[in-house]
Amino acid sequence: MTTPTTTDPAKQSVIASLAFWFCLLVAAGLFAIVVLSPKLLTYIELKNEFYANQVRLVALEEQVGYLEKVSDALRNDPEFAKELARVEFGAARPGDERIQVDPSLSLDGSSEEAQQPMPAQPILWPTGPLELLVHHPKIRIGALAAAAVITLLAFTFLPERSSESAPQERKKTRRYFSKIAERYGRSSGDA
After folding, report:
1. Under a CB-based contact definition with an 8 Å cutoff, are residues 61 and 111 in contact?
2. Nearest-CA neighbor of 121 among 47, 43, 63?
3. pTM for the whole thing?
4. Beta strands in 10-111 (DSSP E)
5. What is the DSSP letter of 116?
6. How far apart are CA 10 and CA 43, in angstroms?
7. Confidence check: pLDDT of 132 > 60
8. What distances in angstroms separate CA 45 from CA 26, 33, 40, 49, 120, one per listed residue?
9. CB within 8 A of 111, min separation 6: which ones?
């Protein structure tokens, strides 16, 4: 038993319409990516730089706070000043016993906090593909050409047609492509 090969024209029209709009959406997306990628890359670079500056600012504020405490202690606490001078010059009182401690726990005139490395910058977005798209004109031109070809194909082969004119359109398209193939195709004698 064979099934009929006739298809519903309304269903064909809906599928053609969806394919048409999908092609236009893809083409618009390609165009938008090419146009907006330089601005997006600049935004991401500025955002990362802002974050790095914020981290540096916080580290410097912590260092200033530490140094203000040391300065106040040097002015107001003579015992602290004596101990700091003794540590700085490596002097020891008679009968003092030296115990090795972790350098971060020792009394030192310089700030260990200020010498700690800054945390790594977070990567907000992978910039590799964006940099590739921004700095390589061949890729940009290729994406724009793909968008143009998709648009042309969508308008050429996927417009809504009436069911009566569809077979005539297909015949015209086949004839057009066969003429192109005859004109530009290789003949057996050329090979």
Report:
1. no
2. 47
3. 0.55
4. none
5. S
6. 47
7. yes
8. 27, 17, 9, 6, 15
9. 63, 66, 67
